[in-house]
């Protein structure tokens, strides 16, 4: 039985840990900064209302307790934590231990190449396997939606097929092996999706503006946000054209959401059941609500998402005026916090 260590205790960390532990195909341990807040048994509620119960073997903040025994280490971390955790686990990794990331579009491969030994097998998902929401920290979470299949990239090992098969067994859906880490490191998912909506919401916001209610992020999605998203995606697709990737490896945003233009894309995003009720990142103040520029929608998706796309585009001489405009705005909001 494979020994898997999950690193991170956010929404995805809870659901992935509980899902893998409940299915019984592996022994699951957890590396977290707050082990005292976790119980050994996690409860994960599925979209059908079923409650999955998974037993976690070891929960610790010390890599020696959980990393040194692992066959697979899976990071469920925000982009700003990846580098630090890789440095933390590197000294205790076994040579053959595979290290992966549930989110690859926030710099995982670029950091892992720099920090981990060159013979460490690396893998990363193109899109997250679950839509996840935390219920009670360290105790329970909701699995709101499944992906029917998964795409992963694997680097630094000759045993790619064997590792792909293990991931497929663990996650209980078909898993396809992609040809390059670029195909998971660059995406038109959250790093483009979230900033396009945020920019449409608050590009004209200034101190003193207070909103009476919290806006719904997807159900109130606008044609303006869709137009920004489509333009940024067109720039990303130009970058993909010059990279060593399989053509079509990252479908256009319109193809992915089965849409033809900004209007149909807006209708699609407004209607996705798993997105219902999700609010925009805002915080309560006297008289109402203002944007929460400290939210991970900002602190992750701009500097550890959209920034990576822009960096690669500049390295390869691709012009990205829409990405540049939205990234500059987002980074300006984050800088105000420091």
Textual characterization of the structure:
This protein is α/β, with parallel strands linked by helices. The chain contains 13 helices and 14 strands. The strands form 3 sheets. An 8-stranded mixed sheet has the order 5-2-1-6-7-8-11-12, sandwiched between helices. Strands 4-3-10-9 form a 4-stranded mixed sheet, with helices on one face. The chain is globular.
How would a crystallographer describe the biggest sheet? 8 strands, mixed
State mean pLDDT (0 to 100 scale).
Answer: 95
DSSP E strands, number: 14
Outline type: globular
Strand content: 15-25%
Distance between the termini: 46 Å
Radius of gyration: 20 Å
Class inferred from helices and paired strands: alpha/beta
Q: Helix fraction? A: 25-40%
* H/E element order: EHEEEEHEHEHEEEEHEHHHHHEEHHH
Task: Note poorly predicted spans.
Answer: none
Write the layout of secondary structure elements.
Layout: E1 2-7, H1 11-23, E2 26-31, E3 41-45, E4 51-55, E5 59-60, H2 63-66, E6 72-75, H3 79-89, E7 98-101, H4 108-115, E8 122-125, E9 130-136, E10 140-146, E11 150-155, H5 160-171, E12 175-177, H6 182-185, H7 190-202, H8 223-240, H9 253-256, H10 262-271, E13 282-285, E14 288-291, H11 296-299, H12 302-315, H13 321-335
Parallel strand pairs: 1-2, 1-6, 2-5, 3-10, 6-7, 7-8, 11-12
Antiparallel strand pairs: 3-4, 8-11, 9-10, 13-14
Helix pairs in contact: 3-4, 7-8, 7-12, 7-13, 8-10, 12-13
């Amino acid at each position: 039985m494979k020994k898997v260590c999950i690193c991170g205790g956010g929404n995805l960390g809870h659901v992935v840990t509980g899902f893998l532990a409940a299915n019984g195909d592996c022994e699951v341990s957890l590396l977290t900064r707050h082990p005292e807040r976790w119980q050994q048994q996690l409860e994960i509620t599925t979209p059908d209302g079923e409650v999955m119960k998974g037993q976690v073997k070891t929960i610790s903040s010390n890599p020696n307790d959980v990393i040194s025994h692992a066959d697979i280490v899976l990071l469920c971390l925000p982009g700003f934590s990846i580098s630090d955790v890789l440095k933390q686990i590197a000294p205790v990794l076994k040579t053959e231990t595979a290290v992966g990331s549930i989110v690859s579009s926030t710099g995982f491969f670029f950091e892992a190449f720099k920090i981990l030994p060159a013979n460490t097998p690396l893998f990363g998902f193109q899109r997250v396997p679950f839509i996840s929401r935390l219920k009670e920290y360290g105790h329970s979470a909701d699995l709101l939606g499944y992906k029917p299949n998964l795409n992963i990239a694997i680097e630094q090992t000759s045993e790619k097929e064997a590792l792909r098969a293990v991931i497929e067994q663990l996650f209980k859906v078909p898993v396809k092996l992609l040809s390059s880490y670029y195909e998971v490191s660059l995406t038109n998912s959250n790093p483009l999706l979230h900033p396009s909506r945020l920019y449409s919401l608050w590009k004209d916001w200034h101190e003193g503006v207070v909103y009476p209610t919290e806006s719904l992020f997807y159900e109130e999605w606008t044609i303006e946000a869709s137009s920004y998203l489509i333009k940024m995606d067109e720039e990303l697709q130009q970058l993909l054209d010059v990279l060593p990737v399989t053509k079509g490896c990252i479908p256009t945003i319109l193809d992915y959401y089965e849409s033809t233009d900004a209007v149909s894309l807006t209708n699609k995003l407004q209607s996705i059941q798993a997105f219902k009720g999700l609010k925009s990142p805002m915080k309560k103040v006297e008289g109402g609500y203002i944007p929460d520029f400290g939210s991970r929608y900002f602190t992750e998706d701009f500097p550890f998402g959209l920034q990576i796309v822009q960096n690669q585009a500049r390295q390869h001489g691709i012009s990205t005026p829409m990405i540049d405009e939205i990234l500059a705005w987002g980074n300006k909001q984050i800088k105000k916090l420091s």
